[in-house]
Predict the 3D structure of the following.
Amino acid sequence: MTMIKVDHLAVSYGHGDSLLRVVNDVSFEVAKGETFGLVGESGCGKSTVLGALAGRNRQWSGSIRIDDETIGLKRSISQLAKQQMVFQDPFGSIHPRHTIGRTLLEPLEIHGKDNRQERVEKALKDVGLPLNFRYRFPHQLSGGQRQRVAIARALILEPRILLLDEPTSALDVSIQAEILNLLKDLRDREKLTYILVSHDLAVVAHLCDRVAIMQNGGFVEVATKAQLLADTVAHPYTRVLMDGSRGYVASRRPVDTTA
Amino acid sequence: MLKPPENILTVQNMSVEFPTLSGVVTAVRNVSFSVGREKVGIIGESGSGKSTVGRAIMRLQPPQAVVKADRLQFEDINLLTVPEEQMLSVRGRRISMILQDPKYSLNPVMTVGEQIAETVILHERVSRKEARQRTLAMLERVNIRDPQRVFDLYPHEVSGGMGQRIMISMMLIASPSLIIADEPTSALDVTVRQQVLSILDDLVTERNLGLIFISHDLNLVRSFCDRVIIMYAGRVVETIAAADLDDAQHPYTRGLLNALPSLDHPRDRLEVLRRDPAWLEN
């Protein structure tokens, strides 16, 4: 029941002298219904892996299999619909001059789906937004509501896979909790497979079954949720990231509280 | 933690109001706190008024804003009545502010060295040569390995972490007694954040300063600061020692803590914060 199988994936940007290889020889498998996390610092290539999976970046080599189909450089319409992305910034990823209804209709038009009105209504209902929100513009929504719209837009094509690129890092903690709960419910109800990119290990450990820790375009370790929670990760870099999500660790200061 | 012997800053019943066409919006309402030689965190969600508090202390609020307070005392200066000319010698010299993103808050057309030196030249009227020496020493103090080279770089040529260290050196070079840091590490990666904070921590301890650390990150503030002020909708709902945050009483603070995914206390579902209209009273 493998949903995604990636072998020796390498992704680069640019041509000729300015060719920059961002992801180097990455291999992983994600089972159906599993949530796989990608964690790392900015520039480590985690979003680029998502971009290659989504078909946004075509300058890749290696092999990608999604739902038992080998993905080539050119994808069919149904292959494109199979995975959908949710972006980080709900303020930048939704067209400011289209109503929410218009935004949700667009993928349906592109993919030539029928029953459009019902699908829009179902998508809004799935993410817990009132139906009259389809007449609103993005600026009339809060950040959490916009992120729900972004999730609805991704779900409207009935994908099997959601590619989540830092879906909560632009949100307040209380709103983040709502979105993480929503993602969890949707995954269980719709039997979705997730790949979640984040820089916060606590968020990843909350949602994911397994996590790949990335550095300089490669995996340094693939840890299970149990390993993260029991603090038995092998690689020192993983531990650095774990400390980071706990907050600040006073380092060089000697234990001296005579003040 | 012992009670600090003296207050650098005392804020009593401060409100900040913005008159708009549809009525007065009160961004900050009756906020009182004091800061000694310690690290005080202000936590709140977006729109809670935490940055507005920081700016009002610096008198950097937008011109239409109205700041009211019973008392706004910084050392020997009454911030409510001090004339703007005198404020110029306070800002940057005695109170300084570290902002979130060095990419946007450093001047893009000046080398970073000149920008840091400018602070000393303006406030202490020293020669360019001496200012340069002071700047190089300060850059070295924030662990920049090659200060001579970095002095002549432009902001776009430095990384985020280095940019933030440059900002810190700019803000500390005139030896202020109070620093307001508004989300100083939100734009940084965790490992870099750790470095920047430990530099800030050392400097604050070594020079015995007061620090107001404005952030939305509970874990960070809890582990970095001595005391935490929690703000909600422009009000201070709770002030508590950072070490006692787990015993916080106010339902809003508790709600925030429970909404946080944690590696140490995993939960199947995160608690969703229920906002109680009663929190908006008093």
User: Anything to note?
Assistant: The interface with chain A takes residues 2, 45-46, 189-194, 197-198, 201-202, 205, 216-224, 255-256, 259-264, 266-267, 269-273 of chain B (CB under 8 Å).
